[in-house]
Amino acid sequence: xxxxxxxxxxxxxxxxxxxxxxxxxxxxxxxxxxxxxxxxxxxxxxxxxxxxxxxxxxxxxxxxxxxxxxxxxxxxxxx
Length: 79
What we know:
mainly alpha; 3 helices; 54% helix
């Protein structure tokens, strides 16, 4: 399963990734830690894909996203 999921994720390289998630890992139900290790490996692959997609967007000249706190500071206030 690990290798198959890795191959699928790596095959999605080149897509415009904007988010990733691991649905559920329950350590009490996984005493050997295999599920946690699989989730760790898959999240690493997802982070690599997200980084790659972000670098492609920046190379195209896409504007950087501002954090919500910075956006709120620059917003003009009206009474």
